[in-house]
């Protein structure tokens, strides 16, 4: 990660724009292979996180700098995408919220702060904690994972170097070895892209396993404002094939819950009973429809 590749690095500032773009394409193309190589570890992380969350735990990301910002981004998208409570998936960043917009000096070097932030988040054995560090040796992340291990949480590491310090603290070590960066030491490039892909997979696939989707539809949505009603209506129509009017009537009958509206239409469930049927099916719309058939 500290050196650029021999093909482009030494002459980067003399290259034309087409040459620069071509060079970035060549470097970026290496990312997907690195992520694919970590498939087994990603599977283990998804299964582990889904098991913890299905038992009442949380998914907690921890990182510093770019890794921390990516963690916060992925966590912040879960409520809007999957209808989750904001406390279900957390992104903890070295230096706190201030670090999302600008660097906080020495925050990443403070292992004690990492442990303290996990302590303050009241991490328990029910939680899954994912520590993210391109180098795999960020003290803040090391401190956080050490605290998570003490508390019995599932620990997952995401690093861009093999056999890194954080991988030795993790129950599941995800190593996405992307190789040298085009711009020496810039971990927001290939390393950042690889980390973003891994976090996308962990959060999205965990939510799929928790029944937050129906097919590839985002059905855990409540149309609480006029802006969301058309989106909810289209989702219901896509899932059921009913008319726009039928979709809107079903949506209105269950106070804006897309999941419950689809269950009413496909499972023949009374609107007043739809929520209870879903809860009995563990939140899985597919299982609720099957049980109602």
Give a description of the structure.
- α2 packs across α6, α8 (244-253) packs across α9 and α9 (258-267) runs parallel beside α11 (285-292).
- The chain is built from 11 helices and 7 strands.
- The protein is 50% helix and 10% strand.
- It has a 5-stranded parallel β-sheet, sandwiched between helices. The chain has a two-stranded antiparallel sheet with strand order 6-7.
- It has 2 domains: 9-209, Glucose-6-phosphate isomerase like protein, domain 1 (Rossmann fold); 213-292, Orthogonal Bundle (Helicase, Ruva Protein, domain 3), CATH 1.10.8.1080.
- It has helices at residues 17-37, 39-54, 65-82, 111-120, 139-150, 190-209, 229-240, 244-253, 258-267, 271-280, 285-292; strands spanning 59-63, 89-93, 128-133, 154-159, 172-175, 213-214, 217-218.
- It has 293 residues and is of the alpha/beta class.
- The model is unreliable at 1-6 (pLDDT under 50).
- A hairpin with a 2-residue loop joins β6 and β7.
- It is globular and about 65 Å long.
Attribute tags:
single chain, Rossmann fold, 11 helices, alpha/beta, disordered N terminus, 2 domains, about 10% strand, Helicase, Ruva Protein, domain 3, globular, 5-stranded parallel sheet
Q: What's the helix count? A: 11
Mean pLDDT: 93
Compute the number of strand runs.
7
Principal-axes geometry comes out as globular
Global structural class = alpha/beta
How many domains? 2
Question: Which sheet architecture does the biggest sheet show?
Answer: 5 strands, parallel
Q: Helix and strand string, N-terminal first?
A: HHEHEHEHEEHEEHHHHH
List the quaternary state of the chains: single chain
What is the H level of CATH, i.e. the homologous superfamily of the largest domain?
Glucose-6-phosphate isomerase like protein, domain 1
- In the CATH hierarchy, the architecture of the largest domain is 3-Layer(aba) Sandwich
- Radius of gyration from the alpha-carbon trace, in angstroms: 22 Å
Strand order of the largest sheet: 2-1-3-4-5
CATH topology of the largest domain: Rossmann fold
Q: What is the end-to-end distance?
A: 56 Å
What percent of residues adopt helix (DSSP H or I)?
Answer: 40-55%
Low-confidence stretches: 1-6
Strand share of the residues? Answer: 5-15%
CATH class (first level) name of the largest domain: Alpha Beta
């Amino acid at each position: 990660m500290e050196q650029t590749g021999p093909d482009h690095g030494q002459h980067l500032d003399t290259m034309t724009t087409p040459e620069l773009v071509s060079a970035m394409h060549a470097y970026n193309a290496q990312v997907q292979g690195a992520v694919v190589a970590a498939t087994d570890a990603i599977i283990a992380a998804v299964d582990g996180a889904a098991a913890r969350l299905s038992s009442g735990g949380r998914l907690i990301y921890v990182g510093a700098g770019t890794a921390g910002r990516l963690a916060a981004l992925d966590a912040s998208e879960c409520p809007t995408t999957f209808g989750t409570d904001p406390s279900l998936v957390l992104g903890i960043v070295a230096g706190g919220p201030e670090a999302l917009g600008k660097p906080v000096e020495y925050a990443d070097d403070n292992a004690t702060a990492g442990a303290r932030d996990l302590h303050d988040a009241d991490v328990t054995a029910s939680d899954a904690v994912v520590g993210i560090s391109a180098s795999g040796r960020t003290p803040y992340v090391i401190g956080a994972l050490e605290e998570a291990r003490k508390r019995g949480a599932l620990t997952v590491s995401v690093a861009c170097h093999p056999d890194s310090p954080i991988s030795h603290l993790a129950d599941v070590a995800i190593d996405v070895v992307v190789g040298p960066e085009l711009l020496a030491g810039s971990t927001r490039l290939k390393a950042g892209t690889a980390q973003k892909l891994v976090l996308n997979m962990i959060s999205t696939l965990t939510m799929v396993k928790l029944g937050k989707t129906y097919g590839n539809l985002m059905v855990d949505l409540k149309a609480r404002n006029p802006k969301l009603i058309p989106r909810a209506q289209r989702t219901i129509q896509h899932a059921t094939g009913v008319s726009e009017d039928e979709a809107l009537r079903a949506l209105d009958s269950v106070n804006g819950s897309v999941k419950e509206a689809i269950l009413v239409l496909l499972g023949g469930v009374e609107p007043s009973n739809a929520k209870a049927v879903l809860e009995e099916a563990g939140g899985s719309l597919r299982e609720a429809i099957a049980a109602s058939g």
